[in-house]
Design goal:
two-stranded antiparallel sheet, 3% strand, CML2, transmembrane helix, 10 helices, mainly alpha, complement receptor activity
């Protein structure tokens, strides 16, 4: 039994989603480097949570409840919802790192946490792709856009994107599992318990599906849309809101910068099946690239504030409205207190006079 557990432990350490390469049994010098990587990754994840929760909540509040519902606001609203849901689960991952990669939350939360991370990645890139295609059609084919670009159709697209993202993240619900070893519980990808060929096949298939569907195909689509858009805008002298264009482009670039290292290391990780030459490099690269990917969830609201004049205007107006309402409540509260004190004094005087 002990030999089986040890074999499983060695096996699952090679197939990680994040930070499962770290081993307390490593030599001292290696542990120093891994310890530094560990704390940097932990800091980036904490930063993503601290900045992302209020930032995405603000975007959801404005675009979901304050602004007029348009096709564009629905795209960005769902993008913020995907990031917000993921960030709500991020403390589980942060706790996992802080406790030296011990997972005390049970198997179902192990599955759910990984599923939400995958859902966020696919939903984000799918919505960015939809935004890019929508912007291209809206500007270059206005007649087609006017005919089909409706709130009803956009809602159908949104439902389809969420269903597709859930389908792509589904394998995490099936393969993620927990394993106890040396009083430590790990959350890992259990592709198969015994057969190395099945493990190899499943790891390769899921990795390449994730890279192609969740990165390369959307990247190619967005690149074609923006290249054609820039070319035809110049050729036809079409008027375009530069601020809106740069906001979308900045959001897309942020996604690429944050997620590209993650996908590169996911592909590189496949080499661990054949040799362990790059094992130490993967120990450093996978946790850092994963935390960088998580950081993307807090960047979009910051980009909206820095670039979008419309968002800045509505943000200032909403803050002014909140402050005005708060001051009005305080003022009313003070007035009511003063009135109550005066009434109480008047009643006391009447009682004394009656006596």
């Amino acid at each position: 039994m002990e030999e089986l557990e040890e074999a499983l432990y060695e096996e699952f350490e090679n197939y990680s989603y994040a930070l499962e390469y770290y081993s307390p049994e490593s030599d001292t010098e290696e542990n120093i480097h891994l310890g530094a990587v560990h704390w940097v990754s932990l800091a980036l994840s904490c930063l993503a949570f601290v900045l992302g929760i209020p930032g995405n909540a603000t975007v959801i509040w404005f675009m979901g409840f304050k602004w007029k519902k348009t096709v564009s606001t629905l795209w960005f609203l769902n993008l913020a919802v995907a990031d917000f849901i993921f960030l709500l689960f991020l403390p589980l991952y942060i706790s996992y790192m802080a406790m030296n990669f011990h997972w005390p939350f049970g198997t179902w939360l192990c599955k759910a946490n990984s599923f939400i991370a995958q859902l966020n990645m696919f939903a984000s890139v799918f919505f960015l792709t939809v935004i890019s295609v929508d912007r291209y059609i809206h500007l270059i084919h206005p007649v087609l856009s006017h005919r089909h670009r409706t709130l009803k159709n956009s809602l159908l697209v949104i439902v389809f994107v969420w269903l597709l993202a859930s389908l792509m993240g589904g394998p995490a619900l099936y393969f993620r599992n927990t394993l106890e070893f040396n009083n430590h519980t790990r959350c890992y990808n259990n592709f198969h318990e015994y057969d190395p060929d099945i493990i190899l096949m499943r790891h390769h298939v899921l990795t390449w599906v994730k890279v192609i569907v969740g990165y390369l195909f959307p990247l190619l689509t967005m690149s074609i849309c923006y290249m054609c858009l820039i070319f035809k805008v110049k050729k036809r002298s079409i008027l375009i809101s530069s601020k809106h264009f740069w906001t979308i482009l900045a959001v897309v670039m942020a996604f690429l910068i944050c997620w590209t290292p993650f996908h590169l290391f996911s592909i590189w990780e496949l080499t661990i099946h054949h040799n362990s030459y790059f094992h130490q490099l993967l120990q450093v690269g996978i946790p850092l690239s994963t935390s960088l990917a998580f950081l993307n969830s807090c960047l979009n609201p910051i980009l909206y504030v820095l670039i979008s004049k419309k968002f800045q205007k509505h943000f200032r107006a909403s803050i002014a409205e909140i402050l005005k309402y708060t001051l009005w409540e305080v003022s009313c509260s003070g007035t009511m207190s003063e009135q109550l004190r005066n009434l109480e004094t008047k009643n006391m005087c009447l009682l004394e006079t009656a006596q």
